[in-house]
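Bench notes, afternoon.
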Amino acid sequence: MSLPTTGGRVESVSVRTSLVGGETVTYCQVDADILPVDPTAPHVKMRVDLPYDWNRKAMMFGGGGYDGTVPDLAENVPFGPTDHPVPLARHYATFASDSGHQQGPAAPPSLDGSFGVNDEALNNFAAGDALKKTRDASLFIVRHAYGADPAEVYFSGGSTGGREALVVAQRWPEAFDGVISAFPAWNNLSEGLDLGYLAQVLSRPGAFPGPAKQTLLHDSVINACDGLDGVEDGVVSNPSGCHFDPFTLRCPGGADAGPSCLSDPQIGAVVAMSTPFRWPYRIASGETGYPGFPFLSGADMRTPFLGFGTTAPADPMPVTSGYGLQYWDQWVKYFLTRDPHHSSLDVDPRHPGKWLGRISYLSTIEDRNDADLGPFARAGGKLIMLHGAADELVSAASTSDYYRRLRDTLGPRQTRAFMRYYVVPGANHANFGTPSFAAAWDSLSALERWAEQGQAPGNPIVSDALHDRTRPLCAYPDWPRYLGGAPDSASSFVCTH
């Protein structure tokens, strides 16, 4: 059964022939609006691409950040290889929505949280209501176009889209036959509280390490930990075995002496970023903390937009500050206080005072992933979850925590029967910029074989086209250890604990 709406309306239909991932595809593009119950709420804007030579399958894409735009339906799955056809080029019917609101033209990409002042829009995005509405409306259009239902329906997304993949598997376990969840921001509010704390720390006088010091710190961590896997290749393959002490970079006397060292306030900020954040109060979701960003274990915080940023957080929040810090700023203004003039630096996540009740309420909407996917597994669903170990925006440690909760809830045997979780050494958030390892794996074909033929992923290989090399893709908690031979070949490595 779908969620309440006041109907829908097709806005436009057009036939297109496009070069999609190297393949020429002719398809019918349908743009439609799903109408809200609250007349003051924005519409859910959605799009469906219907290829002429349909393969009887459908793929829904998730969004990113605060969403607000319809994703490109000719895109690939997260970490998808460029030498394999994307879903639309495989003749999937593809569909997605803006998650129930439209981003303002002046906002940075996916960083407009102003919709949060409306309860229906908030639930469409944060609770995932728009996902089910979009799925049901899209399959109605697919059925009307082809006269048949899809044989399989899949979901794929990264970051917010990765969270959305886990939401649909939990809330509507029979709606999708398989999902790909990459670098999922699954505990959205919990991460936000950590980001809010880090915004306060980094805004302190002298605490922000500029780009040169970010590079110094990153290079120092790599130099200290790169060879722990048996080969020096610019990738920390075993982050849990890497323990870099930032005090080795301390400036004489702790005062800032330039780009070749870290001051005491900067060391304090780096330690805060790499340390788990706990809050001394209860929230309704039951979450008690966030594991932090393992900067001191190889996470690459140097990317100007997704990591630290190039300038310190302030009021108003600069667009040159880190993505996560701007995300927190929008959350405080529109989700928490619903006051666009409220300074996000004035809200202390450790001691929120009068905002505690609102934080607790929002946690029931944003952090409702309870890691019980038993109904999805019993319905025959399959889950592939991926995360880059060097992710600078969503902590890989958080996804590993989700996996452990899932395994503890269902047991190792049942968990392995329907899901695989892989941590990719050196990979960052969505292959942004120039990562140490530009991960590429055909997870969609792996998901198809598993969901349709019962063939679980065996010994997958992940490639890095940027550096022309391959590695074994190891199921967590394993990591690739070098044995000997050509260091750019996966055959020279073995997955080990």
